[in-house]
Write a structure and sequence with these properties.
The protein is about 35% helix and about 15% strand. It is an alpha/beta fold and about 400 residues long. It folds into two domains: about 325 residues, Glycosidases (TIM Barrel, Alpha-Beta Barrel), CATH 3.20.20; about 70 residues, no CATH class. The strands form three sheets. Strands 7-6-3-2-1-10-9-8 form an eight-stranded parallel beta sheet. Helix 10 links the parallel strand 9 and strand 10. The longest helix is centred in the first third of the chain and has 18 residues. The radius of gyration is 20 Å and the shape is globular. The two termini are about 35 Å apart. The model has no long low-confidence stretch (mean pLDDT about 95).
């Protein structure tokens, strides 16, 4: 079982790439390693590293390598997110894709070729570093493809799949054999017409990434102390498995955090422990990567209020209650193996089209039924209606009982 954190630098947040200071980075990494974690996820800002379509800055790439080497010295492995993309409500898109140079991020041939070369370059620079885990194509870049983004680049599910395959191929070309994947925010699972689908997440790349944020309606509906709020990450893990073709495909809980005021600061530690305990009661979980390492400096303006206090450590590197709670989870869960889930609840969602995703969202019929079943101690898995009578599929997953939503009452 792997435990890590999304690295948010204490000095300058992700703008630290503009004034890169390896000594500050080392101090941050020391404070992360002291929690007993084994990996970090890092975020080079795309416009800083790739300011012109034909210019990938060598010095920026060298600084990324320095960061990975510094992490290795502290026993930390590193996943690198390539296309940033979107971070904490801010978009970081190169000027050669916007306004006078506006081009679709997913379909314009020049943009797509440049993105692929950028990802290949980063991966190749790190390919010989033992601490390099692999690339994530980008952080929730699916949010650029549809509403509620204020200026989306509209695409079809087929175009989304083609783009993802091209980006993953570029990562593999740069660093063969590493764990390369992509990451969507939960519109892929919950929004009916979103072009990035559950099948994309569960079938493309080396693992399925899920990002669990309870400000999506879960905490508002069920409350900070509600069972469903602590179960949301586990639910997403199990939901993702319904679309996987590999019955034991690894699932990475790549982002999960305790956002105030939905989770009040005084409940952050309890929420952290409960979320991790329930998520790791799912099988085939690769690991948990908490969001985030350090609080955002309040000297930086215009973040949503909830973003400032998400760290496991303060901005001056002091451990917070949530950080201590996660450190306890590391000690308790490192060698534990969960039992298989033998009972599955049937989701009326299409295998390819993913019609019916709305019912899987917080407040939806399937979501609420799964939460009731979990609260009753059933430990439900999820199976798509199209596969509910497929004996080979059920057997491969260890499912011996299939229940419908109606049967739960």
């Amino acid at each position: 079982m792997r435990f890590g954190v999304n690295y948010t630098p204490t000095r300058g947040w992700f703008h630290h790439w503009l004034d890169f200071d390896i000594d500050e980075v080392r101090a941050d990494l020391d404070s992360i390693a002291a929690l007993g974690l084994d990996h970090i996820r890092v975020f080079p800002l795309w416009p800083v590293f790739h300011p012109n379509r034909s210019l990938i800055r060598p010095r920026a790439v060298e600084q990324l390598v320095q960061l990975v080497d510094a992490a290795a010295e502290r026993g930390l492995e590193v996943n690198v997110d390539g296309l940033q993309g979107h971070l904490s409500s801010f978009d970081f898109i190169p000027s050669w894709t916007t306004t006078w140079h506006r081009r679709n991020l997913f379909t314009d041939p020049d943009v797509v070729r440049a993105q692929a070369e950028y990802l290949r370059t980063l991966a190749a620079a790190l390919a010989d570093r033992p601490a390099f885990l692999g690339m994530t194509v980008g952080n929730e870049i699916n949010q650029f493809s549809a509403a509620p983004h204020p200026d989306p680049d509209h695409i079809t599910p087929g175009q989304a799949a083609a783009w993802l395959r091209g980006m993953l191929d570029a990562c593999e070309k740069g660093a063969p054999g590493r764990t390369h994947l992509h990451a969507s925010y939960d519109a892929a699972w919950y929004h009916e017409d979103h072009p990035f689908t559950p099948a994309h997440s569960a079938r493309l790349g080396a693992a399925t990434a899920v990002h669990s944020w309870v400000f999506n309606g879960t905490a508002q509906r069920h409350g900070a102390a509600g069972a469903a709020t602590a179960l949301h990450a586990a639910y997403l893990i199990e939901l993702s498995k319904a679309w996987a073709t590999d019955p034991h495909r690894p699932v990475w809980l790549q982002e999960v955090g305790a956002p105030a005021p939905h989770i009040p600061p005084e409940r952050a530690a309890a929420f952290t422990a409960a979320t991790v305990d329930r998520a790791l009661d799912c099988t085939d979980v690769w690991g948990v990567t908490w969001w985030c390492s350090h609080d955002v400096d309040r000297g930086l303006a215009d973040f949503p209020e909830l973003e400032y206090g998400l760290g496991l450590l303060t901005n001056d590197r002091r451990v917070k209650p949530a950080g201590r709670a996660l450190a306890r989870c590391v000690r308790e869960w490192r060698e534990r193996v969960p039992a298989p889930r033998t009972t599955a609840l049937v989701a009326e969602a299409g295998e390819e089209s993913a019609r019916g995703r709305t019912g899987c969202a917080p407040g939806g019929v399937f979501f609420e039924a799964w939460m009731r079943a979990a609260a009753q101690g059933l430990r439900p898995a999820v199976v798509l209606a199209e596969r509910a009578t497929d004996a080979a599929h059920l057997a491969a997953r260890g499912i011996t009982e299939v229940l419908t939503v109606d049967a739960l009452g």
